[in-house]
Write a structure and sequence with these properties.
elongated, 2 domains, two-stranded parallel ribbon, mainly alpha, 7 helices
C-alpha cells in the first residue's frame, strides 16, 4: 500500500467540487460555512473551498509541479519534494516541461530547473 506524502497531510484546505445543476450556489454556501477563517476552520484546523464546474479544473501532476516550482516558495518546494520522494511524479518530465513555460516565466523556470537539478545530485 502506497503512503500519502507527508506534506499532503499538512494542507489546511480541501477543495470540494459540486456537480449538480445548482453548483455555483452550493459552492458559495460551502465556502461561507466552511471556508477560510470560518468557525469550521477554527474548530477543525482546515477549510473547505467550494468550487463549481466553471472554476474547477484539473492539472496533470507534473504540470502542477512546474507551476509550484516556478513559484518556488518553501511550501511548494516541500510539496514537490514529497511527490518526487514518493515516486509519484517524473522529474525528467517536470524538467522537460520547465523548458516550455512562456517566456515571461523564463527566470522562474530557470530557478526551478536549478532546484530540480540540485535534488538529483
Amino acid at each position: 500500500m502506497r503512503r500519502e506524502p507527508r506534506c499532503r497531510l499538512k494542507s489546511t484546505s480541501c477543495p470540494i467540487a459540486e456537480t449538480n445543476e445548482d453548483t455555483a450556489r452550493l459552492a458559495d454556501l460551502i465556502e461561507g460555512v466552511a471556508g477560510e477563517l470560518s468557525p469550521f476552520e477554527l474548530l477543525h484546523g482546515y477549510s473547505i473551498d467550494g468550487v463549481d464546474l466553471e472554476t474547477c479544473w484539473c492539472l496533470d501532476k507534473e504540470d502542477l509541479c512546474v507551476a509550484k516550482l516556478c513559484a518556488l516558495r518553501e511550501k511548494d518546494q516541500n510539496f514537490v519534494a514529497a511527490l518526487l520522494d514518493a515516486g509519484l511524479v517524473d522529474s525528467d518530465l517536470i524538467a522537460t516541461r520547465l523548458n516550455s513555460v512562456p517566456d515571461r516565466f523564463e527566470a522562474n523556470a530557470a530557478r526551478a530547473t536549478d532546484w530540480l537539478r540540485s535534488r538529483s545530485r
